[in-house]
Amino acid sequence: MTERTRLVGNAVYGWLLLLPAAVLLAAFTHYPAVATLAQSLFTSGTALRPAEFAGLDNYRFMLEDEVFWRVLENNVWYAIGTIPASIALAMLMAVWVNRRLPLRAFVRMSYFTPTILPMIAVANIWLFFYTPEIGLIDQIAAGFGIGSRNWLGNPDTVLGCIIVLTIWKEAGFFMIFYLAALQSLPPELEEAARLEGASRWHFFRRVTFPLLMPTTLFVLINAVINSFKLVDQLFILTKGGPDNASALLLYYIYEVAFSFFDQAYASTLTVVLLAALAIIAIGQFVILDKRIHYR
Amino acid sequence: MKHSGLQASLAQGIENAAALLLAVLWLSPLLYAFWAAFHPPEYAIRFDLTAPLTLENFREAWDQAPFARYFLNTFMLVTSILAAQFVLCTLAAYAFVRFEFPGRDIAFALVLVQLMIMPEVLIVENYRTMSHLGLVDTILGIGLPYMASAFGIFLLRQTFKTVPKELDDAARVEGCSHMQVLWKVYVPLARPTYIAYGLVSISYHWNNFLWPLVITNSVTTRPLTVGLAIFGAPESGVDWSIISAATLLAVAPLLLAFLLFQRQFVQSFMYAGIK
Question: Which residues contact B172 (CB under 8 A, 6 or more apart)?
Answer without folding.
Answer: B181
